[in-house]
Amino acid sequence: MDKKHTRTLFIFRRDLRLEDNTGLQAALKESHTVIACFILDPRQVTEENAYKSTNALQFMFDSLLDLNTQLEDHKARLYLFYAVAEQLVKKLLESKVIDAVYINKDYTPFSKQRDQHLQDLCAQYGADFFSFDDLLLQAPEETLNKQKKPYSVFTPYFNANVIKLVKKPVQNTFNNYSTVLFPEEESFSLFKKILPQKQPLHVTPGRIGCLEILKHIDTFKNYSLKHNYPAIDTTGLSPHIKFGTCSIREIYYVIKKSMGITDLIRQLYWRDFYTIIGYYFPHVFGHAFHTSLDTISWDNNKELFKRWCEGTTGVPIVDAGMRQLNQTGFMHNRARLITASFLVKDLHIDWRWGELYFARLLTEYDPAVNNGNWQWVASTGSARQPYFRIFNPWLQQKNYDPDCTYIKQWIPELKNVSTKVIHAWYKQKQPTMHYPAPIVDHAQESIKSIQMYKKTSIKNKRLL
User: Fold this and answer.
1) Which domain holds residue 409?
2) If I label 295, which of 131, 255, 271, 407 is the partner at 20 to 30 A Cα–Cα?
3) pLDDT score of 463
């Protein structure tokens, strides 16, 4: 077929793979040659970004090296640039190096604004701009309800969309990658300048790591029964999903073939749901979905927040979760729910403080998913836990870590303490054995939390 473009710029973002890459394969099909590049944007990879996660950067850098290896198999390479994306593209357009730009869409406010600028630049210089839905199981506009509006509650969203066909993965059969040199290119040694200290990762990065997980996905056939127990390993897929080392379609079909539509598939739809909420309701980044709940009067005690961050609250299941996060850049989902609830409803600290803290540490930090999870726990989101249902951390640890395996793994101070004593640690009034007594009384703080939410509801003349 006739090629539309002489030399196209394809910009990798959250799609660090060659296979089943919608935008990349369209670019290769419609262009004589494609410059396959990644742009390290200082707005995202430096301290200019308050939400920067060094663990996420490390995973991304290692996955980019793996992506370069994939390209080397095609006698090509990954072009690496360090620049504000719009400024780099403008420079390439001005010098007539490229005549088209292809991308896969991301749906955050930053991404939408950046891509609009790129589209405007292309129009200004007479170049083509193409963007593709590749990130989700279904594009946002394909998930709307009968009134052509986005769902704001998960269950009807899930029921309406789980029955829809997910596109099958498409093999990349193209090989027309560009190899010309550019003076603006950076070497991969730039990674070390940005992250001088290499971060240890709890999962193997890159497509090679994702394929290894999928190869053994059968070991998680009991996910529905075991996924609430923090001592049991999870799949480790979340950072791969975040950075697209395998496509969401590849992951979906491997899981579906192995175990059908189970809770693991349901988790993929939760991720999509939160992404779509962030797309259609961008005010959630910084505000409650239900904006009337922005008026909750938080205590925001900095000393208590510090204890929560450090994992020294004296509540073992909370501290175990926080220490796991601090040391590995990962926290089990059940522990995330418990620690988040404790911060918001026991310590009465603004959920946005916790959202930011998690963002700076999570290897798979995803703005929409992190935001959605925090707003669920804080009872401020579209999908939300009722404000009067408060996680009791003592019951949670007894139910989901009955033998204290998880607790003892992350809190060595309690390694030789009996399970019975650990589960009754709320009775401790003074710190012992180098481990603190609980910093708050859960029963008392739960009552206070309910009163706070009720007060906000009455003030805004709205029932929660």
Assistant:
1) 291-458
2) 271
3) 47
State the burial class of residue 46 (Cβ atoms within 10 Å of its Cβ: 0-12, 13-18, 19+).
exposed
- One domain, residues 381 and 296: yes
Find tokens 């292309």 and name the residue: 122
Residue corresponding to tokens 């991308």: 103
Cα separation, 18 vs 24, in Å, equals: 7
Q: CB-based contacts of 32: which residues, under 8 Å, 6+ apart? A: 3, 5, 6, 7, 176
What six digits make up the tokens of 4?
């539309």
- In the DSSP assignment, the letter for residue 432 is B
Query: Last residue of some domain: 280, 315, 332?
Result: 280
Asked if residues 313 and 300 have their Cβ atoms less than 8 Å apart, the reply is: no
Give, in degrees to the nearest 5, the angle at Cα 181 between 178 and 184. 115
Domain boundary among 235, 255, 280: 280
0.85 cut: is pTM over it? yes
Q: Are 259 and 221 in contact (CB under 8 A)?
A: yes
Tokens for 306, please give them. 């510090």
3-state secondary structure of 370: helix
Q: Which amino acid is at 294?
A: D
Q: What is the pLDDT of residues 140-197, one digit of tens each?
A: 999 999 999 999 999 999 999 999 999 999 999 999 999 999 888 999 999 999 999 9
Are 9 and 150 found together in one domain? no
